[in-house]
Amino acid sequence: MRFLHIADVHLGHQQYNVAERFNDFGRAFLDAVKLAVDEQVRVVVIAGDLFHRAAVDPLTLLQAQEGLQRLQAAGIAVLAVHGNHDRVRYGAAMSWLEYLMEQGLFCLLAPDVSSSPLALRPWDEKAGAGGYIDIDGVRFIGMPWMGASAPGLLGEIAGIWDSLDWKGIRFAVLLTHAGVEGQMPHMPGGIMFADLGPLRGKVDYLALGHLHKPYAVEGWIYNPGSLETCSFDEADYECGAYLVDVHDDGSFVAEHRKMIRRPFFTLEFKTDLFMTPAAFLEGLLGYLRQSQREIVRKLRNFPDPERALPVVRLILRGHLAFDRAALDMKAIREMLHEEIDALVRRVEDRTTSLGLDVAASEEMTRADLERLVFESLIQSDSRYSPYTSALGSLMQQIKTLALEDAAPKEIYALLDEEMSRLEEESHVDHQTATDEH
After folding, report:
1. What are 305-321's pLDDT values in tens digits?
2. Residue range 81-112, pLDDT digits in tens
């Protein structure tokens, strides 16, 4: 018997508010459906998050129905569980997955958790409920996303395992929406291996979802990854689906099939070497033109022209040797748009201003050190650096007034007077320089 294991389809995700990305998630689902039909599988299991959110719009529902109806027409059974994205919300009468189940498009598996321990009952077509279903000698058990309750409930399943009737069953699949701790270190809260221990030797194939990274652990734990890229963090994952062949003796082979996804590229531009805004923009232009040539080369043999236009992120990283106010983000975005051929273009500013380099000495008083820090701050901004000494003195005066609980009006009057004086001096200096020329 052959089945296909997919997860984290996320239909309805209009990523970056771009309509074509909405279509991409629909295409990815139909690709998985085509794979199931072409490979003549008996069952498709969806390990949670068929939908990106609990509230489903009509177009998203049509995407789901189209794919599920193709599977139904091919005589392929579909089994699913709720994920954290598409589970029924508090106060709602039913979820959209339950609606699709009512339409006869799949079985939505879940144990009865109203008692302790939980109860696993066989699928009842009339009631539209059940914790497991047997197909061609393979038992499929389903448990939806249960969050922090998952480890305890998995233990309860292990506890009642031997009380179930296993006559005629040669292989057991446990389908659930949960991640294993440690597979994605920046996403804590997964199930610990110790929590899965009681199920080992009972479950032959643990079909997981939730984490979008594909992985296989110890020959019985499998996660295919998301069908489409939900963030730049996932761009390098070899995501797809598991095609599983179960043999008559209970042995099996699980083959991971990589799916076509729209390409994602991250461009990183180092800002440290550019001392002026003009030099920075000139350097960026050259880098983007070189990057475009490289992207074209990488996509030369991309298998689907409909999805060949990439999603591109430009990260500006490093120290800025000039005023941050002179970093023209609008010009950078326009340049990225003109030079990079992409469906989506994004800019992330991760630059930092140069740190203070204060040459202090042991003989300095606290006031001297404060003055030096103030002057270093002023010198880092070319708009105010010609007035370093005067503004450093002004900052010290303002600090003293604030510590003495001076009235805000008094502080403002001092600031207004000194800034007006500096502005007048600046005008006189500029006029003198003009007359000399």
Report:
1. 999 999 999 999 988 88
2. 999 998 877 667 789 999 999 999 999 999 99
Q: Which of 105, 66, 96, 79 has the alpha carbon at shortest distance from 4?
A: 79
Q: Is residue 360 part of a domain?
A: no
State the total domains in the chain: 3
Helix (H, G, I), strand (E, B) or coil at 422: helix
Are 169 and 139 spatial neighbours (Cβ–Cβ below 8 Å)? yes
Residues 253 and 275 in one domain: no
Q: What is the DSSP secondary structure assignment for residue 310, as one 8-state letter?
A: P
Same domain for 54 and 115, yes or no, is yes
Number of Cβ within 10 Å of residue 278's Cβ equals: 11
Are the C-beta atoms of residues 347 and 329 closer than 8 Å to each other?
Answer: yes
Asked if residue 208 lies in contact with residue 215, where contact means CB atoms within 8 angstroms, the answer is: no
Residues shown for the chain: 437
Domain range spanning residue 404?
366-436
Q: Return left, alpha or beta for 184; rule: phi > 0 is left, psi -120 to 50 is alpha, else beta.
A: beta
Residue 36, CA distances (Å) to 82, 257, 363 in order: 21, 11, 78
Q: Which of 258, 292, 311 is the last residue of a domain?
A: 258
Pairing of strands 221-223, 215-217: antiparallel
Please check whether residue 349 is in contact with residue 329, taking contact to mean a CB–CB distance below 8 angstroms. yes
Residue ranges of the alpha helices (H) in 128-269? 150-160, 193-196
